[in-house]
Design brief:
Length: 280
């Protein structure tokens, strides 16, 4: 991390829903601006609890969460929404307006923006997310992939610095899953910090640069994606399985091939390896 203050700070945080059990225990994490980080773990590991703490839907039982300089313990969720956006796993839990345009317009109005700016941001967002053609449609009539895109668009229109994605590709086919991840990558390249909770380790390997692993509410690993994805023993201990391409790449390491985190990377590295060994 650079010398700049962390954009998100989770400081010695523990949280419990009931007196007899902790959902998170002594979590200490810092996230810098511009990161694209995955948070992984099996069911019940504390991933979604951590995300809800970051957006202020939950308050720490112990410790504190600082979002862009704001302590979530004393901040309203509406205040934090200017800084961090949260995309739910099921888009139907987030969609409520009668049209796509109204869905996006709602959050902008809640920010108290002048009507002219609301409309300007609305039109820019519809164009950015290629939603102009469906602006007057009922969002729940859209495909699941397009519903998720509308949810993301409605949050990004409010210009948060951080976007939290909770299982955004669940229930999507391969095409829609890839489209959502490419969209997240594009937003990250535009300067939005992305935190991704997912069970899909293929997407983790192919798109993210850092991985945090939770098990039973405790952080058991935090490091570069390549290092975490190649730690087979760690992942197995967390009931996680490395992507097939990573396992194949690890199996070929004795040939001198570098670790590949995606099919595209494997193809490029294999071609380079073969060219270096084939005589002209």
């Amino acid at each position: 991390m650079s010398g700049e203050p962390a954009l998100l700070r989770v400081e010695r945080v523990s949280f419990r829903y009931r007196p007899d059990g902790w959902a998170l225990r002594d979590v200490d994490l810092h996230f810098a601006a511009g990161e694209f980080t995955a948070i992984i773990g099996n069911n019940g590991s504390g991933k979604s609890t951590l995300m809800k703490l970051l957006v202020g839907l939950l308050k720490p039982t112990v410790g504190r969460v600082i979002v862009d300089g704001v302590d979530t313990r004393t901040a309203r969720v509406s205040q934090l929404a200017r800084r961090v956006g949260f995309i739910f796993q099921n888009p139907n839990d987030q969609l409520f307006a009668n049209t796509v345009a109204e869905e996006i317009r709602f959050g902008l109005r809640n920010l108290g923006l002048p009507p002219a700016e609301v409309e300007a941001r609305l039109e820019a967002t519809l164009a950015q997310f290629e939603l102009t053609a469906v602006r007057d449609l009922f969002p729940r009539f859209l495909s699941r992939g397009d519903k998720q895109k509308v949810c993301i668009a409605s949050v990004v229109a409010m210009q948060p610095r951080v976007l939290l994605l909770d299982e955004p590709t669940t229930g999507q086919d391969h095409r829609d899953s890839r489209a959502i991840m490419e969209l997240a990558t594009a937003l990250n390249q535009q300067g939005i910090t992305i935190l991704l909770v997912t069970h899909d380790l293929n997407n983790v390997a192919a798109y993210t640069r850092r991985v945090v692993v939770l098990r039973d509410g405790v952080v058991v690993a935090d490091g570069p994606t390549a290092a975490v994805m190649s730690d087979v023993a760690l992942l197995e201990a967390c009931s996680l399985v490395p992507p097939q391409i990573v396992r194949l790449s690890l199996g070929l390491a004795d040939l001198g091939l570098p670790l590949a985190l995606s099919v595209e990377a494997m193809e490029q590295q294999t071609r380079a390896w073969l060219r270096a060994r084939v005589r002209p």
